[in-house]
Amino acid sequence: MTARPPILVDLKFDPETVARILKTAFPDRGSINIADPASKDRDLTGIDYALLWKPDADLFTRAPNLKAIFSGGAGVDSFMNLPGLPDVPIVRFVDRSLTTRMSEWVVMQCLMHLRQQYQHDKDQRARIWGKLVPPEAAEITVGIMGLGVLGQDAARKLMIMGFDVIGWSRSGKKIDGVETFGAGELDEFLSRTDFLVGLLPLTPETTGFYNAKLFTKLRQGGALGKPVFINAGRGKSQVQADIVAAVQNGVLGGASLDVFAVEPLPSDDPLWGLENVFITPHDAAVSDETALFRHVEHQIARYESGEPLQFIVDRQAGY
């Protein structure tokens, strides 16, 4: 039996973790880890499959004969613009664990703003017994932008917590129990929204999408007085200077941000010091490497047995 070529892996995750798990992953074909110095001069022209997250710029030049590409995360923007991207199927990472982690983060942020956790934290540090009377979740409308696997799961779990949930997507998807809006209904969607949750992929259309103009269209005078912006989608979809200005000027009552245009977020960035702004280091839904490798194995097995690949990216849409 002819040996099958190894899987090419270029994941800018924790290198020690990736190297350790790769020792036992893909046992029937092995792998080439770009992070391994020994791979520097390897001939990659015979490689069929690549697993990528923020790969080297010359990756597709070195591996020009790929049959399929697998993303190391839910998004694919880290390599869609690299030179030499072949015209082959591109598969997103969809996994129960990743989806659950994202929903946990979204629900946590909504609850922290609902229950005014920032003020409690301030009172604790000042040793003040400051009682608050927050609204109920049912008094807050959470508007989710991006209704893929992650957005739909977050919507279901927010509804369990009692929030009123609405959703927006360019294609106007239908979800049981959730009022949804399409491309031409953005202003109506925003005018109904108290907590705006961003889970949009990064495309040319969504770059800089969350900006000063958009924030002014969110509902003012709701149960908490001011709207809140929560983003765990892509950092380049938000204009960070506009977030700072909106919080400082009272257009936004607060924000929760897990993604940024530049990561790590520079220590002198004004976002760090804003009141009622929660910052997390792009770990809302960290990919589990073991689950990721299982996902790739499963998809390759489907492909080689004649079944269609799942979670294929629409290149025209960019996700």
From TrEMBL:
SUPFAM superfamilies: Formate/glycerate dehydrogenase catalytic domain-like (SSF52283), NAD(P)-binding Rossmann-fold domains (SSF51735)
Domain D-isomer specific 2-hydroxyacid dehydrogenase NAD-binding: start-end pairs: 108-282
Top enzyme class: oxidoreductase
Known EC number: 1.1.1.81
Membrane-spanning segments: none
Keyword terms: NAD, Oxidoreductase
Pfam families in alphabetical order: 2-Hacid_dh_C
CDD domains: GDH_like_2 (cd12164)
Gene Ontology molecular function terms on file: hydroxypyruvate reductase [NAD(P)H] activity; NAD binding
PANTHER family (UniProt xref): 2-HACID_DH_C DOMAIN-CONTAINING PROTEIN, D-ISOMER SPECIFIC 2-HYDROXYACID DEHYDROGENASE NAD-BINDING DOMAIN-CONTAINING PROTEIN
Protein's name according to its UniProt entry: Hydroxyacid dehydrogenase protein
Organism, as annotated: Rhizobium favelukesii
